[in-house]
Amino acid sequence: MKKSINRLSNYIFRQNKMSLKRWISLVLVLFAINACERKFEFFEFDCEDCYQEKPEYGPLIVYFSIDDVNEYVLYTIYKGNFDDGIVEYADTAFFNEEQIDVSVDEYYSVEAKYVRGKDTLCVVDGDRFNLKRENSACDKKCYYFKGGIIDVRLMQ
User: Could you tell me the pTM of the whole model?
Assistant: First the structure.
């Protein structure tokens, strides 16, 4: 691949007919074609962070805006989309981050209610909470959680 790119660049510069912008575009296309043949893993996996037994439940992580105005936030967790209205759990958050155990391999939505004066602001977010199995990185079977991070903080 390297030789073909060198030959191609020499030919392009010798001919001096192709603009630099087109040459760069061509090189990017060649790299993209080459990249499609490889599997890139940006997720580094640590075998210490996995479960050998398949868990049925795991921690859904929810971020809230707890401040002087909102010392607590009422929230509701829905199984599926918020619009479906299937309530899984409801509680009050007193910290910026809460971890709630829920069933894995489900989509969850969270509605958080903030009070601003006489107004109530509702923030909704959702994410799929999956259980994945790592087959190649560890010596034994290994399950880990993916997703399940929901951000219902107020925008600054």
Answer: 0.68
